[in-house]
């Protein structure tokens, strides 16, 4: 209504100015001055109402004032344009329609009554103030004009009031529907954002169209813009081999955060022909725990067998070594006998050490726990191994973000570190790098031993902690198995990741 009034006042101003410009040059008449005053009043009323609307302080009283102002402006323009013969009496109808818009049907009826009263008073004043000999409009015509305008205003008030009610009801229903849609949209976004499972959709061309928050976290995707529109195979390699209605499947994908094992289901997206909906969970930790349990079972079985074999071997081995020592004491002059006796003694000692390793793996001693500064233990172990021939020309770094103390057996933990570091030295080789880091992760102290080689393959991963499995010439294959047993006895965990481009990293977790 404010915009409409502004346009109407501007058009009135243009018409008045055009009329003055088309007339011979003369001083503006009293009627012209009154016209400008009425237009100025319309502008003032419009500005005041607009400012109150902008500040949010306008109310029903402002609507009533606006309607009364519209009636007064219409009355002024009708007076200036001829009274009963004025072509602008329709302005009263606009005032009634405006009242119906801002004050409902009751306001429209009141505006019709006020307009009728104002028009009647205007004609009555004009009739009384005009000399009798100058009056040209008969009284009957004046009454007819008043009656017809009053009837028209009442009818317009009733019709506009009805339309206003319908418009208000429709607008209210539309506003409610929009509010419901907004609530549903927010609820949908909350559901998608709160889902613990990853969700990905793609179109018929197999291009990604949407990822939820969980999918971002699992796949280590920074934002939608980087993947939306990309082929689905780039995000989930191998997913297209699954059927369009695969209820369950597993997929191994490589992400910026490392290799992940996904358990996923694929189904058509209803409402879009050819589109797919993919829901998946991160099963990496679950599969790792399953592998740890299987490995623990295998190690327990192998440990029991190793203990039994070691026990059976130790007695005959001791007899063989004793016999060899007796032969060596006879001081035989035969050089061949002396040489063979030395070989027998040396190999018997080597077998004895191997049996001790078997026993240590099969029945590791109970950890003698005490508070140990892990950062100091790391530094001491690395300093001790710097003189190892394997560590020559290998760059070794130690990083400890903070001092951490844990209840551990220092001798057993040092043995684990020695095994991991020597494996790292050998894998990295000359000009390689081995890095040891210590950090707190939640309620766990993590020791990370990283080497730059990345030489462990996927096939080797499943057997890495099994006894007697080794890729090193002359190795017994018991170092990592023993390390695994020690860490498990401490209630911790040990895991490994390896890639030629990123190196190999063993992560030892110890409870704090």
From TrEMBL:
Q: Which UniProt keywords apply?
A: ATP-binding, Kinase, Membrane, Nucleotide-binding, Phosphoprotein, Transferase, Transmembrane, Transmembrane helix, Two-component regulatory system
Q: Which GO terms describe its molecular function?
A: ATP binding; phosphorelay sensor kinase activity
Q: Which PROSITE patterns match?
A: HIS_KIN
Q: Which residues cross the membrane?
A: 34-51, 63-80, 110-130, 142-163
Q: Does the keyword Manganese apply?
A: no
User: Which positions carry the signal peptide feature in this UniProt record?
Assistant: none
Recorded catalytic reaction(s): these are: ATP + protein L-histidine = ADP + protein N-phospho-L-histidine
Q: What is its EC number?
A: 2.7.13.3
Domain Histidine kinase: where?
A: 308-512
* PANTHER family from the UniProt entry: PEROXIDE STRESS-ACTIVATED HISTIDINE KINASE MAK3 (PTHR43065:SF10), SENSOR HISTIDINE KINASE (PTHR43065)
* The protein, known as: histidine kinase
């Amino acid at each position: 209504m404010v915009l409409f009034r502004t346009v109407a006042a501007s058009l009135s101003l243009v018409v008045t100015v055009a009329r003055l410009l088309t007339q011979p040059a003369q001083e503006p008449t009293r009627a012209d001055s009154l016209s400008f005053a009425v237009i100025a009043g319309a502008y003032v009323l419009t500005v005041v109402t607009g400012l109150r609307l902008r500040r949010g302080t306008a109310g029903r009283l402002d609507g009533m004032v606006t309607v009364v102002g519209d009636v007064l402006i219409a009355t002024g323009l009708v007076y200036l344009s001829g009274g009963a013969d004025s072509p602008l009496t329709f302005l009263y109808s606009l005032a009634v329609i405006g009242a119906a818009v801002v004050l409902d049907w009751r306001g429209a009826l009141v505006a019709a009554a006020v307009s009728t009263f104002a028009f009647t008073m205007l004609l009555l004043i004009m009739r009384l103030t005009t000399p009798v000999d100058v009056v040209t409009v008969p009284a009957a015509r004046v009454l007819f004009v008043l009656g017809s305008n009053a009837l028209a205003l009442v009818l317009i008030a009733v019709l506009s009031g009805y339309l206003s009610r319908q418009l208000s009801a429709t607008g209210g229903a539309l506003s409610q529907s929009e509010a419901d849609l907004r609530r549903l949209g927010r609820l949908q976004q909350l559901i998608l954002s709160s889902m613990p499972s990853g969700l990905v959709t793609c179109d018929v061309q197999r291009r990604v169209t949407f990822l939820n928050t969980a999918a971002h976290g699992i796949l280590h995707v920074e934002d939608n813009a980087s993947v939306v529109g990309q082929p689905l195979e780039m995000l989930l390699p191998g997913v297209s081999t699954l059927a369009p209605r695969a209820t369950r499947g597993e997929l191994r994908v490589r992400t910026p955060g490392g290799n992940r094992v996904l358990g996923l289901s694929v189904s058509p997206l209803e409402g879009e022909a050819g589109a797919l909906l993919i829901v998946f969970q991160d099963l990496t930790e679950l599969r790792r725990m399953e592998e740890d349990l299987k490995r623990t079972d295998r190690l327990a079985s192998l440990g029991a067998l190793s203990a039994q074999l070691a026990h059976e071997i130790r007695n005959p081995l001791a007899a063989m070594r004793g016999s060899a020592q007796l032969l060596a004491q006879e001081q035989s002059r035969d050089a061949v006998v002396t040489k063979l006796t030395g070989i027998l003694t040396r190999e018997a000692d080597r077998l004895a050490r191997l049996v001790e390793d078997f026993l240590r793996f099969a029945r590791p001693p109970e950890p003698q726990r005490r508070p140990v500064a892990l950062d100091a233990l790391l530094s001491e172990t690395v300093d001790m191994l710097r003189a190892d021939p394997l560590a020559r020309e290998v760059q070794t770094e130690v990083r400890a973000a903070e001092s951490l103390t844990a209840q551990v057996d220092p001798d057993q933990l040092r043995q684990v570190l020695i095994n991991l570091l020597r494996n790292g030295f050998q894998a990295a080789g000359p000009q390689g790098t081995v890095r040891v880091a210590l950090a707190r992760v939640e309620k766990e102290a993590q020791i990370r031993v990283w080497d730059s080689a990345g030489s462990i393959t996927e096939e080797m991963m499943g057997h890495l902690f099994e006894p007697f499995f080794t890729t090193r010439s002359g190795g017994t294959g018991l170092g990592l198995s023993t390390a695994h047993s020690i860490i498990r006895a401490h209630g911790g965990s040990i895991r490994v990741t390896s890639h030629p481009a990123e190196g190999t990293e063993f992560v030892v977790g110890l409870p704090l």
